Amino acid sequence: MNQRPTVNVQVAQTGDCYACATDESLLKGMLRLGRKGIPVGCVNGGCGVCKVRIVEGGVQPLGPVSRAHVSADEEAQGYTLACRVAPTAPVRLEVSARLARPFSNPSLRAGANAAPASLSLTTPPTKET
């Protein structure tokens, strides 16, 4: 079985890292993190729920991105949709819009004993010592 080339992708806000094949979308690789709450919409660049900003690294388009969700000015600043780009080099990205919620709310992070995504469970805050 041939192994597809992968690169490292890092989520700037949390430091989470994942391997992403150079022929798959950043979103598909991100889903392997196992976080509850990562929104997956149309997966065709039309809904905008997977908006990210590429801070470092390189990506190649897998298809068009709707200008309703990423303007030309935003694209010039590194914004794109994670479902429509694949990495060409190690990437550091910032999640934004609705995609930011699962990366900013610790109660939505999946752990080793995570409940199935269909259940709605909350984690009580932990005491700092």
UniProtKB/TrEMBL annotation:
It comes from the Bacteria. Residues 5-99 form the 2Fe-2S ferredoxin-type domain. One of its GO terms (molecular function) is 2 iron, 2 sulfur cluster binding. CDD domains: fer2. Residues 105-129 are annotated as: Disordered. Coiled coil: none annotated. Pfam families: Fer2. Residues 119-129 have a biased composition (Polar residues). InterPro entries: 2Fe-2S_ferredoxin-like_sf, 2Fe-2S_ferredoxin-type, 2Fe2S_fd_BS, Beta-grasp_dom_sf. This is 2Fe-2S iron-sulfur cluster binding domain-containing protein.
